[in-house]
Amino acid sequence: MSLKRVNAVVVGAGAGGGVVAxxxxxxxxxxxxxxxxxWPNFEAHDHDELISQRVTVLGNAFGPDDRRHxxxxxxxxxxxxxxxxxxxAYNNNAACVGSGTVSYGAMAWRFMEKDFKLRxxxxxxxxxxxxxxxxxxxxxxxxxxxxxxxxxxxxxTGADPFAAPRRQPYPMPPFPHNQEGLVLExxxxxxxxxxxxxxxxxxxxxxxxxxxxxxxxxxxGFACEVNAKxxxxxxxxxxxxxxxxxxxxxxxxVSEVVIDDRGRACGVRYFDAExxxxxxxxxxxxxxxxxxxxxxxLLNSQSKLFPNGAGNRHDWVGRNLQGxxxxxxxxxxxxxxxxxxxxxxxxxxxxxxxxNPGMVGGGMLANEFIRLPYLFSGIRPPGAASWGRxxxxxxxxxxxxxxxxxxxxxxxxxxxxxxxxDPVVKDDWGIPVARISGSRHPNDIEVGNFLxxxxxxxxxxAGAFQTWQTGAGRGVSGGQHQAGTCRxxxxxxxxxxxxxxxxxxxxxxxxxxGSLHVTNGGFNPALTIMAxxxxxxxxIKRGWKGSRFRS
Length: 551
Prior knowledge:
The structure is a single chain. With 551 residues, the chain is an alpha/beta fold. It folds into two domains: 1-42 and 92-106 and 109-152 and 231-321 and 483-551, FAD/NAD(P)-binding domain; 155-220 and 326-408 and 441-474. The chain has twelve helices and 17 strands. It has helices spanning 15-26, 42-45, 100-103, 118-122, 137-152, 179-190, 236-242, 291-300, 373-376, 388-398, 442-461, 526-543; strands at 6-11, 31-34, 71-74, 80-83, 196-197, 246-249, 253-259, 265-271, 277-287, 326-332, 347-349, 365-367, 402-408, 418-426, 432-437, 466-470, 509-511. Strands 1, 2, 6, 7, 8, 9 and 17 form a seven-stranded mixed sheet that branches. Helix 1 packs parallel to helix 12 (526-543).
């Protein structure tokens, strides 16, 4: 029995796809939202540290599962190896309704004005495909605002002197500093820096029918037991369902966007929860499956007009994979600095995002989220014992006296950092898997080392008696902040979509996730992906003319 045709099918129920489903269904379009995972369930995983997504090598609380999913990654020596989601090299994002917005730390950053104009600001960078975005901060600002108010952000308006201008304040007040934050705030001010509370996609007060955060230590890698962390699963997707125009189909693994001989998307093929191959026809398709999976899906969507994959006429799909190297420093203190006030991260500075001598870009620095005991057992100064009595004594003495300052490096896009589909390896459904290869640009290493030194200086000023830095490796980036594989642009020869996420040459196929990012900012990208979901949806709604959608 064939499935009823709908106006729009959205692939992926994460930060971008959840927003798109809500916006289109509220506009009166019939929408099917396909998600490869299920609905997140706190009771199924509760506070089990050993299955936390944050402790990747032990498994991922929200999937995908190791049994059915795999990828191929470069081994750095010209060969390849197969990895599963519990291996850090997989570069996993959660597989569930809400995706990473269920388990993320929930920092809510707007990119800076210069982040959209890196090529103009710094000129070309040898070995990089650095370009300006085809849109500006001013274009995206109203959609940042909409995300902040509809999904919910707590922050202090005007506290960051380097932030781009905004029209409206944050809808909720900021979280107060914990003990770490208070110590770091004083030290930053003494160094002439500009500390402020981190904006968070968490309720600091009751908001839109959900309670305030209870500040438990289990946040990063876990679902929120009181539903105070703001993701698409508990905000925009329920709003989409409330319209009666949206269906969410979970455990649905999409294998192909179907492109007809006229070069138009007809719908998608997917395997349902019973492993039956289904064909959902639609007037338009929006792909928001993450930078890795979106590129994989387009590359697997081969047709007469696009033999190398949908939108891949000029070999740009899957290119320019970026994430964030996280560099910084640890500091040990003589007195307790841990006060068990979750999520832990409260304070940040943006003094080093731009204007660093001889370097392109930079990144914000913040204190880190609470590291639970198992994760902390892997944190030791260079040369310290990794097992035995000394190891245990360090664990007992310094779990409450160790502070980390860390931040994301704004990485340079590199053409050979990429996602392909493997010619041999397939997943459990017979779909060719993603193959990931490439390396970071040397500028990323330089900026990472610079930020690590600044983090260490901050910790020393705060009173740390022993410090050590953590730098960036040269290997391919990606991870939970993956971006860039289907970048937007004005030139079809050097981009995958137009400035509105519409795939060049396929006017009813759109992308609405971090794949669109030309550059990935020196910040966690979740709020930007949400804003792009609203941006792309606005364009679709304005151009919607029924089943014969055209740009």
